[in-house]
Design a protein that fits this description.
Length: 171
């Protein structure tokens, strides 16, 4: 079922100089894929991730913790790099878990709970919408480019042609 226009616009977040929809699917695994995450550790990981995300203003859309991996679907403000966010989450959760469960130090002598890498995928506007926008606007110029881009997305989300006219003439 198609989302209402209000719901479509609500997915965009606002900062002082940005309107954004930066959603990411992130997956990371335990080092050596050891299945160390039981119910107690899972609960601790979830709470620590929530604390980190609240601290940084990151919205948790959905998430799950398995025996040896974590899946997160997050909306991250554009002021943060994805690598920094993953570093904070993996680092702070590992610190917390090792402090709470010293028995894990036997498996992870280097105090590294998570494997070095991670998977990330952006979620949001489709390639087709972006290609269509680029085809329509061959030569962008700073302010006009910004307002045209903004109006294109508003029109594509709301279907109201008058929004484009209003934005372009209101500045």
């Amino acid at each position: 079922m198609k989302e209402s226009k209000k719901e479509e616009m609500e997915k965009y977040k606002r900062q002082s100089h940005a309107i954004y929809d930066c959603r990411y699917h992130i997956v990371f695994i335990t080092k050596y894929r050891f299945k160390i995450i039981d119910k107690e550790i899972e609960r601790s990981i979830k709470w620590r991730i929530k604390e980190i995300c609240d601290w940084k203003g990151i919205e948790i859309i959905r998430g799950s913790v398995g025996k040896e991996h974590v899946h997160l679907y997050l909306q991250i403000p554009p002021k943060y790099s994805i690598s920094d966010v993953v570093k904070w989450i993996k680092g702070k959760t590992a610190e917390s878990i090792f402090r709470q469960y010293p028995r894990l130090a036997e498996k992870y002598w280097g105090r590294r709970m998570w494997a070095r890498g991670y998977f990330v995928s952006t979620v949001g506007i489709t390639d087709e919408v972006i290609k269509k926008y680029i085809r329509r606007n061959k030569k962008p110029s700073s302010k006009i480019f910004f307002y045209t881009l903004l109006s294109f997305f508003i029109v594509s989300m709301t279907g109201r042609a008058d929004v484009k006219k209003y934005i372009l003439h209101s500045s």
